[in-house]
């Protein structure tokens, strides 16, 4: 995730962040299934998706704490 994407995340509302979180978790589960079936051998995609989920959760936590 690039710096401008991180700044975009910080500018989003709580509802948008929750929607992004659901989408990212869905994509991660798809990646896991593809890897188990042997369709996808790129482990970095899953690793990066987990990091994106962690970033979204961190920003979401900060926004809910302020609220």
Could you characterize what this model shows?
The protein has helices at 3-11, 14-37, 43-66. It has 67 residues and is an all-alpha fold. Helix content is 85%, strand content 0%. The model has no long low-confidence stretch (mean pLDDT 92). Helix 2 (14-37) packs antiparallel against helix 3.
Entry keywords:
single chain
Characterize the overall form.
elongated
Runs with pLDDT <50, length 5+? none
Termini separation comes to: 26 Å
In terms of DSSP E residues, the strand content is: under 5%
Order of helices and strands: HHH
Alpha plus pi helix count: 3
Q: What structural class do the secondary elements suggest?
A: mainly alpha
The gist of it:
This protein is about 85% helix and about 0% strand. It is mainly alpha-helical and about 70 residues long.
SSE diagram, text form:
Elements: H1 3-11, H2 14-37, H3 43-66
Helix pairs in contact: 2-3
């Amino acid at each position: 995730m690039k710096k401008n994407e991180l700044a975009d995340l910080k500018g989003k509302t709580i509802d948008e962040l929750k929607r992004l979180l659901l989408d990212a978790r869905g994509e991660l589960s798809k990646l896991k299934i593809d890897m188990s079936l042997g369709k996808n051998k790129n482990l970095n995609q899953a690793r990066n998706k987990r990091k994106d989920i962690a970033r979204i959760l961190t920003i979401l936590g900060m926004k809910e704490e302020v609220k």
